[in-house]
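---------- Forwarded message ----------

FYI, see the ANP1 protein record below. Original note from H. follows.
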Amino acid sequence: MLLPNGGEHWKSAKAQIPASKAVIHYISSISRTRRYFLFVAVGATILLFWRWLSGHDARRYECFGPPKPPMDMTPNERDRWSADNTPVFFNHHTPIEVNDTTIKHINLNLVKSTPDARQLQERVLLLSPLRDAAYYLPTHFDLLTSLTYPHHLIDLAFLVGDTSDDTMAVLAKELTRIQTRDDTVPFHSVTIIEKDFNVTMSQDVDERHGFKAQGPRRKSMGRARNYLLSTALKPEHSWVYWRDVDIVDSPPSIIEDFIAHDRDVLVPNIWFHRYEEQDGKMVDIEGRFDYNSWQETATSLKNQRKWKLSRDIILAEGYKEYKTGRNYMAKMGSRKADKDEEIPLDGIGGVNILVKADVHRSGINFPCYPFENQAETEGFAKMAKRAGYGVWGLPNYVVWHIDTEEKPGNG
Ligand SMILES: *[C@@H]1O[C@H](CO)[C@@H](O)[C@H](O)[C@H]1NC(C)=O
Ligand SMILES: *[C@@H]1O[C@H](CO)[C@@H](O)[C@H](O)[C@H]1NC(C)=O
């Protein structure tokens, strides 16, 4: 095919001779050695040209198939042609791309509760149930302001319910005062939740602290805590810090101190103190406040078996009707001893609790019904233990509660 076609002419002296004959004549006229080299050169040229055709540019020719319309191809030709030209990629791992904004993705595997919470920027949800709490709120917010855990990692949430005083107005005023500051005091967010349970019980100390009042009272408080928890807990929270508003003093580093213990559920000792005039002198009187944090004892377990309690009974501490014989954390502890000493507990009070958020997420909350003859925070402790979580107390770490003789508290 390199050779000129028969119809063309050499523009030379031998123009009269047909081209093919001229070539043959030329070849036979040269020496053997030259002829040999000529054949090698022509062969190499053909070989190179052929390789170039079937090489990088080959597809261009194959794409067009044989030089005939598809209708004229034999089935074999068509098969060959289509087999060469329809690449099939089996990709079983094509990523699924979700663009619809109604489809949300939350990865709870990334939400951890660790002792390194501060470095890892773990988020804390601080929950306070409020009922006729106007009196306590200014102190509560003074204490919150002084918390040393970074405030931009803390969300506050309040449940206001069955309230007859100015709780809502004072709350709104205090929150505005704090959240509009331009320093590091404002918290990440604040949520106020309103929910009435039509609890008609008196807030009077004597009446609401009687044994008969305890069952209904603890049930309704448990319900309030659960509404607050289920509304305020968000996927980003690692820790839930329950804090009642009638605390009058607590260490500013309490969140870090508690997180460092890396416990599922942890409570401090709750005491109160007041100044009293005795013989013309002011004396500081300390008292043990919270009898809801306790350990079961051999006696208490025996008593409960002996009483054959109906499932509907809710036990409460400190009443002559049922002397349980439990070990109270309030009676243990010393302010001078090691603050980090831990003891296991079977029941806890609700004044100040730090909980790993996954405990709540697993469904451990505050029973508003008798759970193993306990309700609310004591029921919570029993439920957490039943589910295999650890419930602990710090007998030497004291958080000060308002003295209930001074002013009715809601602990
Ligand atoms: C999703 O959005 C991106 C960016 O707008 C777009 O490139 C992609 O094709 C979309 N994917 C689907 C499955 O709609
Ligand atoms: C609570 O009491 C108010 C007023 O008596 C009534 O309007 C409301 O329906 C009650 N709510 C519930 C949940 O019982």
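H. also flagged this: The pocket of 2-acetamido-2-deoxy-beta-D-glucopyranose (ligand 2) is lined by residues 196, 198 (CB under 6 Å).
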